[in-house]
Amino acid sequence: AGSLLGLSLHGGVSYPVGKVEELRLYPMNFIEFLDAMDKPQLVNILKAGNWSVINLLESEFISLLRQYYYVGGMPAAVLAHIKQKGLQEVRSIQKQIIQDYRRDFSKHAPAQEVPRIDMVWQSILGQLSKENKKFVYGVLKKGGRAKEFELAIQWLVDAGLVYKITKVTKPELPLKFYEDLSAFKLYLCDCGLMGAMADTAAKDVLLGDNVFTEYKGAFTEQYVLQQLLASGITHIYYYSSDTSRMEMDFLVQREGALLPIEVKGGTSIKATSLHNYLKEHPDISAIRYSMLPYRQQENISNMPLYGVFLRT
Predict the structure, then answer these.
(1) Which of 245, 266, 14, 4 is nearest to 132 (CA)?
(2) Angle at 272 between CA 271 and CA 275, to 5 degrees
(3) How does pLDDT run across 228-237, given as a tens digit for each residue?
(4) What φ, ψ does residue 194 adopt, rounded to 5°?
(5) Which of 13, 39, 63, 230 is most buried per CB count within 10 Å?
(6) CA atoms of 286 and 248, how far apart (whole Å)
(7) Nearest to 228 by CA among 263, 267, 277
(8) How far is 59 from 64, CA to CA, in rounded Å?
């Protein structure tokens, strides 16, 4: 067993078919974080989906959600937090994990790809801070092209260190048919590690809102993506159109239906493009995640961010 077992078997070693059972593990999701924090009643209330009770506990859920944004889901960081070792110790653990990852680049990756892998890794925050968040090779180096970096990106994806979300040219089913493999976004594997790489201060995450607006909502999108992946949703896309200026943060295909997902980091939920799309497609329902409590608005379910795993 090992976090990079699959990668280590790529180098000319035959795979032991029938003798290995693969389990894909993700950082702890928010529900697992609440369990670790010894909050079984809050977990049960969330799972029951009783919104009248959930809304009464809104401030407590938001406080815990902000803690999760800072701590993330890496087990060592969560353990330090629940043992009250202090947020500085949590951040120290996160930075050590990041350094360990970078050492793994040179240990496991092909030697000629290591510099490119590091360039991609170091660029992710900057890429996500852009308005459309689309990965641009030219950010890595002047005149950068896909053929130079595609192997480096794939190595990071295979290692489970980044998540690659591909664009679709149309928000229609089946989504796989409309993949645009040349356009994608890269997210880190954990929101806590993202905060450590950005060196965000604890008070900004736990008390302020600036950190969620300054980075164009990247922290919140990172969080939502983690929860979706941990819940078993693996084929996740996004959509944007230069002509209609329509954007959808995430698109998933569930039980033969298209589900647009919009992510808002705060309490402002204006979304002209989503409303226009749903007016043209009244048979489609969407989910919007924000810091607001639950309410149903025609064919949009407005869900609080601490309930991402519900009704998806």
Answers:
(1) 245
(2) 90
(3) 999 999 899 9
(4) -60, -45
(5) 230
(6) 10
(7) 263
(8) 9
CB 174 within 8 A of CB 55: no
Q: Do 66 and 219 form a contact (C-beta atoms < 8 A)?
A: no
Residue 40: is its pLDDT beyond 70? Answer: yes
Residues facing 134 on adjacent strands = none
Q: Would the pTM count as exceeding 0.85?
A: yes
Beta strands in 255-297 (DSSP E): 257-263, 286-290, 295-297
Token duo for residue 239: 């959509």
Rounded alpha-carbon distances, angstroms, from residue 74 to 189, 199, 200:
10, 17, 17
The burial of 19, by beta-carbon neighbours within 10 Å (0-12 exposed, 13-18 middle, 19 or more buried), is given as exposed
Residue-wise over 212-222: b if at least 16 C-beta within 10 A, else e? Answer: beebbbbbbbb
Whole-number CA gyration radius for the chain:
20
Cα-to-chain-centroid distance, residue 257: 22
What value does the mean pLDDT take over residues 54-58?
A: 95
Angle between helices 58-71 and 218-230 (to 10 degrees): 90
Mean pLDDT in residue range 203-215: 76
- Side-chain half-sphere CA neighbours of 146 within 13 A: 5
Taking alpha carbons only, the member of 118, 79, 86, 248 closest to residue 170 is: 248
